[in-house]
Every structure is written in C-alpha cells, then in structure tokens.
Design goal:
- With 190 residues, the chain is of the alpha+beta class.
- The chain contains 6 helices and 7 strands; from the N terminus they run H-H-E-E-E-E-H-E-H-E-H-E-H.
- The protein has 2 domains: 38 residues, GTP Cyclohydrolase I, Chain A, domain 1 (Orthogonal Bundle); 129 residues, GTP cyclohydrolase I, C-terminal domain/NADPH-dependent 7-cyano-7-deazaguanine reductase, N-terminal domain (GTP Cyclohydrolase I, domain 2, 2-Layer Sandwich), CATH 3.30.1130.
- The chain is 36% helix and 26% strand.
- The strands form 2 sheets. Strands 5-2-3-6-7 form a 5-stranded mixed β-sheet, with helices on both faces. The chain has a two-stranded antiparallel sheet with strand order 1-4.
Length: 190
C-alpha cells in the first residue's frame, strides 16, 4: 500500500486550521502538497523489503574473511512518537560466513528501514536482524548515533545531545570483540 496523498493533504490542511492558520493564505496554499511530497520520501520504506539489497552476494570460496566494517552511513528517520526527524550516522560490521555483499548495499538497508515511522532502538535491532536474515553472517554489529528533534527543538531542548544504540548478533556479541570494533568506529583504522 502506497502513500495516500489526498488524505495527507486533507490532514495537513486540517492541522493548519486547528492551529489557527488561514489555509488559503498564499504562503500555505501549497503546504499540504509539499508535506505529502516529503511524507512519500520519509515513509517510502514501508513498501520495500529491506532484505532485497542483500540478495546479490559474492561467494568467498576458501578464504576466511575477517570483519567488514562500514562507518559513517548518514541516515534520517521520523520518530513515531512525535513525527519529528532524527538524524545521525550508522556504523555496520559483519563477519562473513561464506559470502559478502557489495558495500553500496549496506546503506540501502539502513535507508529502507529508516524510511518508516521508527524508534532508534528498534531501527538498530531491525538493521541487525536484516543482516542476519539476508547474509547469514557469523556475527553482526550495528551502532547508531543520532540527534532527535524531539530532544533538541522541544521539551528538553538539548541541542548537543545524541543517542547511541547498539545491536550485536553472533560472534560480534562477544564483549571483547565488540569493544575492539567500537574503538575502530570511534577513531578510525591506523
């Protein structure tokens, strides 16, 4: 099921009227349509399968691959509690079992899952579970560091606050291995 533009536009017009605005004023006349455009983008992941980008893999053959780590994948999502954005970076690591996937596929998984009404905690878990389902790796580590508009622009108004969430699976759940990878994420590889 896709985005229902007519309903979004009607709801936005009603919201504007509910806050006391004149929805026929020149600056607001296109706002319902613009919000519908943005919602198509913000929530487009609802209609997509996040495992799909992981289907085209490359066999490793006899090699024993070590950790694959892709850092600083920028993402944005919408908090389902306030429908306000949260933005940050994702760091993804996995221990291949017998196949790898193109590195450009990893951000696509994040993009699909982030383009849904989300909680950062759940998003982190869903990314990890998608990699397990799509690649059957020996281990997965997902670290998200994001700033939430519901914390930075309203309520607490903590403009420099960020939230870090971590999900690990398999061999990368070992505290020593996980700490080593988190150190690599934080300072880079020398």
């Amino acid at each position: 099921m896709g985005i229902d533009r007519e309903r979004i536009e009607a709801a936005v017009a009603e919201l504007l009227a509910a806050i006391g605005e004149d929805v026929t004023r020149s600056g607001l006349m296109q706002t319902p349509s613009r919000v519908a455009d943005s919602y198509e983008e913000f929530f487009g992941g609802l209609a997509l399968d996040p495992v799909e980008p992981l289907r085209e893999t490359v066999p490793l053959g006899d090699s024993d691959a070590e950790t694959v780590l892709l850092r600083d994948i920028h993402f944005r999502s919408m908090c389902e509690h306030h429908l306000l954005p949260f933005m940050g970076v994702a760091h993804l690591a996995y221990l291949p079992r017998d196949r790898v996937v193109g590195l450009g596929r990893l951000p696509k998984v994040v993009e699909i899952l982030a383009a849904r009404p989300q909680l950062q905690e759940r998003l982190t878990e869903e990314i990890a579970d998608t990699f397990v389902a799509g690649l059957d790796p020996r281990g997965v580590l997902v670290v998200l560091d994001a700033s939430h508009a519901c914390v930075t622009t309203r309520g607490a108004r903590q403009v420099d606050a960020s939230t870090v969430t971590i999900a690990s699976r398999g061999e990368l759940s070992d505290p020593v291995v996980r700490a080593e990878l988190i150190a690599l994420i934080g300072r880079g590889v020398a």
